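[stage:ingest] chain + small molecule (iron/sulfur cluster)
[stage:ingest] validated
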Amino acid sequence: MTTNPTLVSGTIAAAPQAQPLDVTPSPLALLLLGRGSDPDSERGVDCPGVLPPASDPTLTERAAAARAALGDRLFILGHHYQRDEVIAFADVTGDSFKLAQQAAARPQAEFIVFCGVHFMAESADILTAPHQQVVLPDLAAGCSMADMATAEQVEQAWEDLIEAGAAEDTVPVSYMNSSAAIKAFTGRHDGTICTSSNARRALDWAFGPQRGGRRVLFLPDQHLGRNTAIGELGMTEDDCVVYNPYRPMGGLTPQQLRDAKMILWKGHCSVHGRFTRECVDEVRARIPGVTVLVHPECRREVVTGADLVGSTEYIIRTVAEAPAGTAFAIGTELNLVRRLANRHPDKNIVFLDRTVCYCSTMNRIDMPHLVWALESLVRGEPVNRISVPPEVATYARKALDQMLALP
Ligand code: SF4
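[stage:predict] done
[stage:export] tokens:
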């Protein structure tokens, strides 16, 4: 967790001016995710309500006034991938799990405004007390990766495993970036949640004597699963199969399901999945001596071509601890890379890709939505409350608690 340096004693400092980064905008860069009307998935819905116009020059003052009016009743969480102007209002910044923990550690806060995406707000609701209300400023802020595994698809996959005679010794391990329904599935089958920081420990537990699994069903990010299994546990490609939910039996034979050690769900992050091995080769040719630092949601060939791989928190720490003059090419979401470049002007920090690569759903939380959500709370008319049904929350909590108990 990083305490936001720009929010001091209730006054908001101007967001730092963005320095030009080494990127060239592309017309395909900002994907229009978050449209649609599927409240049961991460896809989100169009946001109701009358928002202030983005051109309103008083947005910052209005947000600050609403914040001051709510005082300790309000706690604002900001994910690292959020825009600077939104992050400026966060009481804490962090990755999804740290933010959920922070929410749980503030029982006095009546309202938790989560500047992130839908699955994060769900996790915060699961981990907080019943009297606390979690608000997502824009309901359309979903996650394309979490959308790639629906509850129905995962139940079907489990049926396939039962049919193949492989379910009994399979342990579900689900990435934090999944819906509450997938987390509940994981808890019901005595699995665990993991983050990009503890995926190795989760797999060690699943295969170890405590849980005694013979294979893992890894949901929903195939790349994190593969990178951890091969890169950290010494498995091979032959130990891994990819389950495609759009094909009968995932496109696999019963024998393939039984023989696999890692059954990787065919899901990925649309942001980190954009990086290619060519990006790595190109930046090495362009910047001699550059350290390529990437997130494990990147494809295998990007991770094997990189110098360092690790979670968002690891990336932040690695850059902070490097000596002045170090050159980094970073493969993660662009808002964070740009913020790191601004925070460390003594280091040469470039984005790994040459095209813009924001998380478009994270970017849906903007000042008009934040002001609208905060002013609604001041009026006593909360909007966009995220509330996980108790029967889902119980098992999702079980899987989250298992993660907290990982050795
Ligand atoms: S960066 Fe990827 S995994 Fe994270 S919220 Fe965006 S789409 Fe989902």
